[in-house]
Amino acid sequence: MPEIKHEDYAAWLNIFKKGYTAYGLKENLGYCREPHESLTSNKFKSAIWTWNIYYKYLNLSFIKSSYYFMHYILNSINKHIL
Fold first, then answer.
1. Alpha carbons 49 and 7: distance in angstroms, whole number
2. Distance between CA 49 and CA 46 in Å, rounded?
3. Which among 6, 78, 65 is positioned nearest to 39, based on CA atoms?
4. pLDDT, tens digit, for every residue of 4-27?
5. Is 66 a domain residue?
6. What is the mean pLDDT of residues 34-63?
7. How many other C-beta atoms lie within 10 A of the C-beta of residue 52?
8. What is the extent of the structural domain holding 70?
9. Is residue 58 assigned to a domain?
């Protein structure tokens, strides 16, 4: 695991970057609590860290980072609508 915030997300992106494929499950395999002051509960801070992972940690170009970040935002909006 990289020693950065959102280390689990960054680790998964590194795995996918190597060409591995992942499949989603429709059942919950576990639950976690989100303290009110956690990074996950603060959507603005979470978005900033996600951008930093794309642009700084993975060294993606500004265009690619923007593309993936827009997908991140749209998926987040879609998740809260449903």
1. 10
2. 5
3. 6
4. 777 788 888 888 889 998 888 888
5. yes
6. 81
7. 16
8. 40-82
9. yes
Q: Is residue 19 part of a domain?
A: no
Residue 40: helix, strand or coil by DSSP? coil
Backbone angles phi, psi at 24, to 5 degrees: -85, 155
Task: Note if the pTM is more than 0.90.
Answer: no
Instruction: Give the type of residue at 39.
Output: L
* b/e map 14-50, b = 16+ CB within 10 Å: eeeeeeeeeeeeeeeeeeeeeeeeeeeeeeeebeebb
Which residue is listed with tokens 């009110």? 36
- Split into its structural domains, the chain has a count of 1
Domain membership flag for residue 16 = no
Find all residues with CB under 8 Å of 36, minimum gap 6, and list them: none
